[in-house]
Design a protein that fits this description.
The complex is a heterodimer of chains A (232) and B (332). By secondary structure, chain A is of the alpha/beta class. Chain A has seven helices and seven strands, in the order βαβαβαββααβαβα. Chain A has one domain: P-loop containing nucleotide triphosphate hydrolases (Rossmann fold, 3-Layer(aba) Sandwich). In chain A, strand 2, helix 2 and strand 3 form a beta-alpha-beta unit. Classes of the chains: A alpha/beta (232), B alpha/beta (332). The structure holds guanosine-5'-triphosphate (GTP), magnesium ion (MG) and zinc ion (2 copies).
């Protein structure tokens, strides 16, 4: 089984792209399944269910979504194996921009959309910088030139990545993505596999449920900003 | 990779965008005289925690980054010809098609929604090799592209212009053209931007200046700018035009501008006037090309009369807008 991590800002088109990818893989006789990690509730499982794509979904709720993801990654992998999948996609949104769910030895895909602004490729951090493939969506609604400028900024942020234009609406570009997935390494197990990026450092008092604001209530791993002092 | 450069100064000189690696990750900018290995070895545990990795991995990533940088400027494939060989339609019947297009050719794609025009375009873009639902084969310069070539060409082969497209960037016309010219790594960026502005103003009914915000352009102005930009600043050798609406721009001049820039133009249209500017029409039905019609001499003759009628209609629209009369006669 091949494991593919699919990350990107909320509503960038991850689910749409996966539906299109599943269709192309299906024609090649390969079965794709999805594990979706959400912060709060999400409708993605309904969408995958309706398309006949095996899907499991988990909500991090009050926990750090990044930590929640790593703690369940190996279980997700085991679920994929038990369902006899050929490709398991792990979709995650809502992870903070500092983090990335990408794993060494598994194909890492980042989905970004053309509408998100030209500074987005530089802003979204390791999720894009450490990806093997960047799928750029929503090209159907912006000008050709904006698509090109956006792709250029993506390549500048991560020159190693293969940049593909994929339409979540028509599926244009999904063949190219399927081609890259087909060439990705198999992931027989996640036991002992490494994240490409470290998770955020814990623990401060707020991690443990503190709600009161102010220096007296802060403990543990606390970092303070430097505010410039105006001369009086 | 980094070992071939004794210092960062040597790297900056050879590959200026290499600085992005440090800026993007919030790492301290290396001193020009420092050696790469020393820089990574001297990073503090705090700085390493911030980028989420150890010095060795970071150094290796920087080497990968440098190795990949030359791909930034990779231009779209140049092509002398594009060949499309038929596959099978949705009804399982073979598609009899062996079409070769060269730069400057214009082909109209006609047929109802769902008849297979989008799939045709997707086949061209992916350089289909009998591996899509249609079974078509697409050849560049008479040859099948290999896997690496197909991925490299992906997204660079076909530029698109459609009436659903809008400018969304928060930039002025000039800033935007500069950004586009820079992304092409052109030598004279300001001159390239100015040339596109001039062309766009020739096409647009109402002129606009370089300081106009992109999002404030009218429909016709936006379309004119998109067309001029694709003709001059876009490297893709093929352009798909998806129905240019009659928004006060000279559509035939627009097509001529694209072909004059050596593009192959595929044009999805149901406008007779535009369709007649094409040398051939591909008629789509049931997911396949059902017929290829070459524009006949009689049709070419009709073009003159049609253009006259079109000019009259345009004049009427203009008159309507200015509060004038709407009298129409076939004769004059
Ligand atoms: N025009 C256009 N819309 C798209 C495209 N891809 C996705 N969308 C739309 O964008 C919206 C969000 O798409 P999703 O696929 O749900 O995005 P997502 O990244 O999975 O969203 P979350 O999982 O909620 O973070 C939907 O309304 C899609 O129809 C595209 O290529 N073009
Ligand atoms: Mg989703
Ligand atoms: Zn995080
Ligand atoms: Zn905390």
């Amino acid at each position: 089984m091949q494991l593919v991590t699919v990350a990107g800002p909320p509503s960038s088109g991850k689910t749409s792209v996966l539906l299109r990818l599943a269709a192309v893989l299906g024609r090649q006789g390969k079965r794709l399944g999805v594990v979706k990690f959400d912060c709060l509730t999400g409708r993605d499982k309904d969408v995958f269910d309706a398309a006949g794509i095996p899907c499991a979904a988990g909500q991090s709720g009050a926990l750090c979504p990044d930590h929640f993801f790593v703690c369940n990654a190996a279980d997700a992998h085991a679920w994929g194996l038990s369902r006899g999948l050929d490709v398991l996609a792990v979709e995650s949104a809502g992870l903070c921009n500092r983090c990335a769910p990408h794993i060494e030895g598994a194909l890492a895909v980042c989905v970004v959309d053309n509408l998100s602004g030209i500074d987005t490729p530089a802003k979204i951090g390791p999720m894009l910088r450490l990806a093997d493939v960047v799928a750029v969506t929503k090209g159907d609604v912006v000008s050709q030139a904006e698509r090109e400028v956006f792709a250029f900024r993506v390549r500048r942020a991560n020159p190693r990545a293969t940049v593909l234009f994929v339409s979540g609406l028509t599926g244009q570009g999904a063949e190219a993505l399927a081609h890259v997935v087909a060439g990705a390494p198999a992931t027989p197990t996640l036991d002992g596999a490494s994240l490409r990026f470290t998770m955020p450092a814990a623990v401060c008092s707020y991690c443990l449920g503190q709600r009161k604001i102010g220096a007296d209530h802060q403990m543990g791993n606390v970092r303070k900003m430097d505010f410039p002092r105006e001369p009086a | 990779m980094t070992s071939q450069y004794p210092t960062f100064a040597a790297i900056w000189a050879a590959l200026p965008p290499a600085r992005d690696f440090f800026a993007a990750q919030g790492l301290p900018m290396p001193a020009p005289e420092a050696a790469p290995a020393d820089y990574f070895a001297a990073l503090t545990p705090d700085a390493l925690a911030e980028v989420g990795t150890d010095a060795g991995t970071l150094a290796a990533r920087f080497a990968d980054f440098l190795a990949a940088l030359p791909r930034l400027g990779a231009a779209a494939p140049r092509l002398a010809s594009l060949t499309i060989r038929g596959g099978t339609g949705k009804d399982g019947r073979p598609e009899r098609l062996d079409l070769t297009l060269v730069p400057g050719d214009v082909v109209a794609l006609v047929g109802p929604t769902g008849s297979g025009k989008s799939r045709f375009l997707a086949d061209v873009e992916w350089l289909a090799d009998a591996d899509t639902p249609t079974g078509r084969r697409v050849l560049l310069d008479g040859k099948t592209a290999d896997a690496a070539g197909r991925l490299a060409a992906s997204g660079r082969l076909v530029a698109q212009l459609s009436q659903n497209m809008h400018f969304v960037m928060d930039l002025t016309v000039r800033e935007f053209l500069i950004a586009h010219a820079e992304s092409r790594l052109l030598a004279d960026v300001p001159a390239a931007a100015e040339a596109v502005e001039g062309l766009a103003n020739e096409l647009a009914g109402e002129p606009f200046g370089p300081d106009t915000a992109l999002t404030a352009l009218s429909g016709g102005q936006s379309r004119a700018l998109m067309i001029a930009d694709v003709a001059r600043l876009c490297a893709s050798p093929i352009v798909l035009v998806d129905e240019i609406e009659n928004a006060g721009i000279d559509r035939r001049k627009a097509i001529a501008l694209l072909t004059g820039s050596g593009k192959i133009v595929l044009m999805a249209t149901h406008d007779p006037l535009l369709a007649l500017t094409a040398g051939r029409r591909l008629v789509f039905a049931a997911g396949a090309v059902a017929a290829v019609i070459a524009t006949s001499p009689e049709e070419k003759t009709s073009l003159a009369a049609l253009a006259q009628a079109d000019a009259k209609l345009a004049a009427l629209r203009d008159s309507l807008r200015r509060g004038g009369s709407l009298c129409f006669s076939q004769e004059k």
